[in-house]
Give the backbone structure.
Amino acid sequence: MTAFSIDRSELDSLFQALKKRGYEVVGPTLQDQAIVYDYIESSAELPVGMSDEQEAGSYRLKKRSDGALFAYAVGPHAWKKFLHPSHQRLWTVKKQKGDLQFISEKPNSIRYAFIGVRACDIAAMQVQDKVFLSGTEKNYFYKELRENTFIVGVNCSHAVSTCFCTSMQTGPKLLSGFDLSLTELIENERHIFLLKCGSKKGEEVLQELSYDQAKPAEQEAAQKLIENTSQQINKNLDVSNIQELFYQNYEHSHWEDVAERCLSCANCTMVCPTCFCTTVEDVSDLSGDHSERWQKWDSCFSLDFSYTHGTGPRRSSIKSRYRQWLTHKLATWIDQFGSSGCVGCGRCITWCPVGIDLTQEVAALRGIQK
Amino acid sequence: MNHLMPHPAEIIEKRQENENTYTFRLRFCEEEVQRHYRFLPGQFNMLYAFGVGEVPITLVSDPMDTEFLDHTIRIVGNVTQALARLHVGDKLGLRGPFGSAWPLDKAQGHDVLVLTGGLGCAPSMGAIRYIMRHRSSYGKLAILHGVKAPSDLIYQKKFLEWGKIPNTEVFLSADQADRTWKHKVGLVTHLLDQVNFDAGRVLVMMCGPEIMMRFAVKECLVKGIQADAIYLALERNMKCALGFCGHCQLGPQFICKDGPVLCYDKIKNIFDIKEV
């Protein structure tokens, strides 16, 4: 892949080029003391000069003096909020003279351009692609959104203590799944981006920017930056024989131990970029001849999730619900879709109100087992 | 295609089976949809009650009958209650078929033991009807069905009819019975002792409460039936029936698409574990 370089100011040209092509530009923004994804007009709306510190159960922003635009790790939002929205109308039904007429909701034709997608989050999209698009039935609503999305990835220049993409082999370096990739370089008063194209669409957009061939020194600096990020990552999840580990430990006493701490709040499933579970809700009006079916994010941590009449919730204990979540994420997911459901983004660790760290739970399962 | 959207269907016939159980004969309102609809015994449809919601219900009719689709429903929650209030000529939503079928090809040339409990007899109906149509392709057929109380027994006429067919045995049992009950008394698993079969050439099709199936599977294994010759139809919470909503998982299995009929061999490591 040829590397190019663009000046920081060219980022706005990139946004304009994308908008001209009909894309809605979405990127990281600063809101409510967190970095979250939202529609943006210009690079000034990015979290300029912001960084973050994350630990189990803790997220804090920190200012930097260098004006960096992408020098932080992933926040509480995952891109699934756009591609697999938390609320989606599926269809509408009208009742007329006793007859029912069902009207399908059309897939959203919005074309998103995601700015600053991290390697772990691209891996997460590829995981959801397998969930929604690899079977005989394709997810009608996800398919079009996903196919229409333009991805501007960014190589991570900063890792936090909850990151473990290196264990899941998803990052921090972008390898595939992007249209354009950026590496942010700030050296000697120079603020540039190293840019690579990952698709034809990406090459076309590049032609509208003012760019140079990247110099060897710049490429070297970018390489170093990513290696440096890699070295910042201390957290480790041992995935060797992970399926056997879980299948042999359904009745391990450690599940009780986690259950003592877990609040079953479902935060981990909401922030997880791969968790895909949904429920449905029927919404009627007072006329009595019109009803809508809505799909909403759901969580295996809720009691209703496994409810069947006659038996009640199949998983009534927190122990069983945590076990289901983690076993699915790390083991049964592999049986179902051929890859792990975890990409090592660390969100579930940061946003757990009691700081449960799945990597430690896995270690405990291994430790006591030996 | 939006596979989450139902098609309108009309109630052609509504039969009350017992106090809280009804069989609905349905037909898609759109001719085109009805004509192309095919299902296999054991598969299910999602039935939608206007403004209330959807429930997964197994087809109980003969799969060769392409005119009508029968579903037996017990009133247990909001949706089934709303469905039970509907009358002949009313419309509901229907989509399907979904899920796996009973192993009727694999069972050819074998004896078949159908073991059901309560409303679990409904999902086995399609398989029994299929075997009856192709009776000579199968060996001995034993139908073992248990209910809690005599009033829970549905399809009584069918059971008695089948019992008269050569090489076919029907055993009915109630956990608690009154004087009107002419059949066995006790748990359905005890009926296994009443049947003579060659454990090496029998295929078991089982459906009922999971607690019943756990014991029944154990009995079958004790009698020498192999784990890969035992098939169970399972029930889980389902919203989409396409493997997208995540609700119906049992270990790696999605009950909506890998099931509802599963070979015991596939789930033997987790079937006895609580709350999987």
